Amino acid sequence: MDRCRDTSIEIKLADSLNQQFSTMSPLPSTQSEPDRTKVSSIRQLRQFSNLLDRAIRIPGTSHGIGLDPILGLIPGGGDLLGAVFSGYIVLKAFQFGVPKETLLRMGSNIALETVAGTVPVVGDLFDVAWKANVKNVDLLEAHLENPETGKKADRGFVVLLLGGLLLLVILVSFVSLVAIALLWRLLQSL
Predict the structure, then answer these.
(1) How far apart are CA 31 and CA 9, in angstroms?
(2) How crowded is residue 17: how many other Cβ atoms within 10 Å of its Cβ?
């Protein structure tokens, strides 16, 4: 079902890109190259987001678990690694010209997943259900299908956004490790 949806999105995206690039160059041989490159990049990002958020199907359901929630189970460093992977999608969205507002939504998806993921058990279940990476690629595809007018992000904005996300993840990881250490000391004193 997801593959069919992904294919229809790719077709719509290719049509949209054909319209956007049809005025770029009078040479027919160069018109399709940017289209193929963008469609290929979007396809790769979609596959990457699926790997992170729903790579392993849960038997008997249409839901999946990806590497991101599994990495989140590793105390401290797992969330950091997951955020770096998620940040890559935001960086690629910036390269596609996604406006600041959409990049902020992408960043908030990652931040919410990171903060909620720190709550034991409930946070891990939230991490499985939220699928920030899939949501972020959906936002990118929606922008490319219907380019919205908005202030295009500059490099400084993206550096601040990704740096802020990284700082948030490091802070959350630190607090989690301190909480685990305090809990361990408490259990040892009993």
Answers:
(1) 20
(2) 21
Tens-place pLDDT, residues 9-60: 555 555 554 554 444 444 444 446 667 888 889 999 999 999 999 999 989 9
Cα–Cα distance, 15 to 18 (Å, whole number): 5
Q: Tokens 């058990």 belong to which residue? A: 121
How would you class 157 by CB atoms within 10 Å of its CB: exposed for 0-12, middle for 13-18, buried for 19 or more?
middle
Contact 136, 49 (CB under 8 A): yes
Q: Which helix (H) or strand (E) element contains residue 53?
A: helix 28-54
Cβ contact 95:140 at 8 Å: no
Asked if residue 166 lies in contact with residue 111, where contact means CB atoms within 8 angstroms, the answer is no
Q: Is the whole-model pTM more than 0.90? A: no
Instruction: Decide if 165 contacts 136 (C-beta within 8 A).
Output: no
- Write out pLDDT tens, residues 92-105: 999 998 999 999 99
